[in-house]
Amino acid sequence: MRRPVLTVLVCALLVASAGCAGVLGGDQTTDSATTQRPTTDSPTETASAERLAPGVTTEEVTDALALVDAHRESLRSGSFVKHAGVEWTNSSENGSRRATFQYDDESHWNWTRAGVDTYGLTNGTLGLYADGERVLSVIAGDGNASYGVRRVSDDAGAPPIPPAELFPSSVYDRDLLYTLFGSDNVTVERGDDAAARVSGTIADVKIGEAAAENVEFDAAVTADGVVRSLDLSYERFDRSVERTVTFEQSTGDPVERPDWYSEASNGTA
Q: Where are the stretches annotated Disordered (predicted)?
């Protein structure tokens, strides 16, 4: 049986790839690149090289895996808001997309993505809201909107899929950050607005599902390893791409109920 268009598009949103295709996360994978975290700091972290963050000293990134794991765990153990954006241009076109992810825990979160050419919409908005018991969705654009609840089957009476099962773990950008911080040409400086600024260049590397060239990045890292901001640029195919990411940690619950909640609860088309 053919799956409804809404279900197909929402599934596509959940596995959004990197670069121009996706702005929530830097990677489609979930911890596939690295699986083990060292239990001790690298021996190169000597007294002459002051530790600024997990895996980072005043001289270098000594352990990229320790850094990206600390980033993910610090965010996962609290609440945060992530803002991500991508802009691209070439000789004949330009476009942009923006995404916001509000997180309290893996069963309570809100993800909104808007921009040009969003899954077949000229200028559309896609949203997922996990209210603790279910995930509601909206796809709006070109004067139309569809709402629904993610369920275990296409049957309208089927039980909802638990939100934790649909949580997009790529939101932390762990694999993307590991690719960048683990590269050869990386420099570290003390930061004015963070414990460290980590920057670098890469001639060519795979980001997400496609190759990128002339990669440049600059990241602000806190003392506990959270990448507070990332500016990333590269060339892919015939496009120049600029990406920005920020993570803002919260002391309370930052997740807001969307204004389309009632329509999605009622399954209004």
A: 25-56, 248-269
